[in-house]
Write a structure and sequence with these properties.
single chain; alpha/beta; Elongation Factor Tu (Ef-tu), domain 3; Rossmann fold; 2 domains; six-stranded antiparallel β-sheet; six-stranded parallel β-sheet; 24% helix; globular; binds flavin-adenine dinucleotide
């Protein structure tokens, strides 16, 4: 683990939903000796108007992108909390102290993965899928992602591109409040959807990430399908 001072390069808005809380990505310059693995997380310490704030965030970038583009990124819901209000006061060039990397939500010699997530929980899976795509890993991934509506989907273009490049990656969306034009799945992730889209689910390691309610529901779902606990990896985002 290293601690280093860096600065904000860019804030990237990710959603345009009028109902749901907006999501943005925050990009910081990487330091060359910070080597992380896809799916890990880091600690972001900022100081705004004399007050210090600390939160944990998964990398939404892959280390391959960081090596190429020189930044690391986290992605978050901009709720009306002290930390998020402070984040929004940051300007390009403002400094932050980062501690990185942490976490075991990583891909290690795993041949078949099922990822079940929703909303903000997509951050770490994006890092993992991007890494597997960029490095042409043979890891077979099926990702089921649930969000509110089309305008609340983010990273969709990235995933479309990854799927076009990676024959081992399948991304399935299900929306709880889609428009009438939506042709995909509707509603939350359930056992029927998992059985249909991941028929070999018993052979997979399941990666579950996001708010505690989401991860708990997904864990109950896969345990109910007789997937052993040893085949489940979790990354819980507390306080959502
Ligand atoms: C490994 C890891 C990875 C994460 N990755 C992401 C990510 O990629 N994106 C992301 O958005 N978030 C991620 N999180 C969660 C993130 O750290 C924040 O907790 C989350 O973004 C909520 O922050 P907030 O400022 O919106 O709410 P906060 O202000 O932190 O908290 C909101 C609510 O929680 C209550 N609360 C505050 N402190 C505590 C406490 N100590 N104990 C119990 N309740 C408390 C408050 O009363 C309030 O109601 C991750 C967390 C972990 C541990």
């Amino acid at each position: 683990m290293t601690e280093f001072e860096t600065h904000l390069i860019e804030i990237v808005p990710r959603t345009q939903c009028e109902v749901m809380i907006p999501v943005s990505s925050f990009r910081f310059k990487n330091q060359s000796d910070n080597h992380y693995q896809a799916g890990q997380y880091f600690v972001v310490n900022i100081e705004v108007e004399g007050n210090k704030y600390t939160h944990h965030f998964s990398f939404s970038t892959s280390p391959t992108e960081t090596a190429e583009k020189g930044y690391i990124e986290f992605t978050t819901k901009l709720r009306n909390t002290d930390y998020k209000k402070a984040l929004l006061k940051l300007k390009k060039g403002d400094s932050a102290i980062l501690n990185a990397p942490f976490g075991r939500f990583i891909v290690e010699d795993v041949q078949k993965i099922g990822i079940l997530t929703g909303g903000i929980g997509i951050t770490a899976p994006r890092s993992i899928c991007k890494y597997c795509t960029d490095t042409k890993l043979s890891t077979d991934i099926v990702l089921i992602n649930s969000t509110h509506c089309e305008n609340d989907l983010f990273f969709q273009e990235d995933f479309d591109k990854m799927q076009s490049l990676n024959p081992n990656l399948k991304v399935v969306y299900t929306l709880t409040h889609p428009t009438e034009a939506w042709k995909g799945y509707k509603g939350r992730i359930n056992a029927e959807l998992v059985k249909k889209e991941i028929p070999d689910y018993l052979e997979r390691i399941f990666y579950l990430s996001g708010p505690v309610s989401m991860v708990t529901a997904m864990e109950e779902l896969v345990l109910g399908l007789n997937v052993p606990k040893t085949q489940i990896k979790k990354e819980i985002f507390p306080r959502y």
